[in-house]
Design goal:
The longest helix has 18 residues. This protein is globular. With 139 residues, the protein is of the alpha+beta class. The two termini are 30 Å apart. It has five helices and four strands.
């Protein structure tokens, strides 16, 4: 399960990420990512940021019926929980599931998400994302 501070909730947050962020398409997923700076926080809705990167999911009816959509969403939330520590804390990510996500296995979707984030230059090693140097000391 993805803890509450790591979720996007409001339509404005989804829209801002999709419209102003970068996008990369994979076979079963489209990854939208926006790294928020000070200017974005002044313009935007929330000034206080708690937790790390936030994720939002879009799983439309094109993916399948309700049972299939909920299964895909659960798998994507689990995948996002695995990737949380590999992203900068000021990043919002929206993942749009494509119809192929209904039959893709979790390992394949995790690989697609990581390669997408890497191509967007957002994927970092877990130690660096937490503010640690490679030797383990705090920055």
């Amino acid at each position: 399960m993805l803890p509450e501070p790591y979720r996007l909730h409001h339509r404005a947050e989804f829209s801002r990420t999709v419209r102003r962020g970068q996008r990369i398409g994979r076979r079963d997923l489209v990854v939208h990512a926006l790294t928020l700076g000070y200017d974005d926080l002044v313009d935007g809705d929330c000034v206080v940021r708690v937790g790390g990167p936030r994720f939002g999911l879009i799983v439309s009816k094109a993916v399948g019926n309700a049972v299939v959509r909920h299964r895909v969403a659960r798998r994507l939330r689990h995948i996002c929980a695995q990737v949380v520590e590999e992203l900068p804390a000021d990043t919002d990510v929206v993942i749009r599931a494509l119809p192929g996500a209904a039959t893709a296995d979790s390992a394949e979707m995790l690989r697609q998400l990581r390669t997408g984030l890497r191509k967007l230059r957002l994927h970092v090693e877990p130690e660096l994302a937490l503010g640690r140097t490679p030797a383990g000391e705090r920055r």
